[in-house]
Amino acid sequence: MAYADGTRGAFDTYNTLITDLAGLDASSANRVMGHEGNPGVFTPSLPPGMTIHLNGGAATTTLLPLPLSVVHIKSATPFALAAIGGRNNGINRAWRGPVCEVLAYSETMDAEAAGRNVRYLKEGWGIG
Q: What does the pLDDT look like over 38-59, one tens digit per residue?
């Protein structure tokens, strides 16, 4: 995925990366959002045990600038994924950029398997 033109240093508004069913209709903490006016994730909305990794790197909460990149969201506990990049809470908070390919798994992956997926996506989409 990428945000806007890939060079912006702050989110224009709160932008949804992922949300669960509760986050689609109500004010739920079960969503991951870009933080308005900031380069990172709105950490109060990050569910416990969830981490975000860019292009195979260490966990981060800073996302921008975000040219086309592999965004790996990992949860230590079950997360009822309902939307990727969609709007939530009845407000237009949709992701502002492309989401090219999504791989979602219902079981925990070890580091080696996650690394293979990151390499697959980086090679497939020409991400350096």
A: 999 999 888 888 999 999 999 9
Distance (Å, rounded) from C-alpha 56 to C-alpha 75? Answer: 15
Global confidence as pTM: 0.88
Cβ–Cβ under 8 Å, residues 42 and 33:
yes
Q: Tell me the two tokens of residue 117.
A: 């997926």
What is the DSSP secondary-structure string of 51-100? Answer: EEEETT-SB-SB--S--S--EEEEESS---EEEES--BTTB----SS---
Q: What percent of the chain has pLDDT over 90?
A: 57
DSSP letter at 35 equals P
- Collect all residues with Cβ–Cβ distance below 8 Å to 63 and sequence separation of at least 6: 3, 34, 39, 40, 41, 52, 54, 71
The beta-carbon contacts of 77-82 under 8 Å, at least 24 apart in sequence, are 77/47, 77/48, 77/49, 79/18, 79/20, 79/30, 79/47, 79/50, 80/20, 80/21, 80/30, 81/18, 81/20, 82/19, 82/20, 82/21, 82/23, 82/24
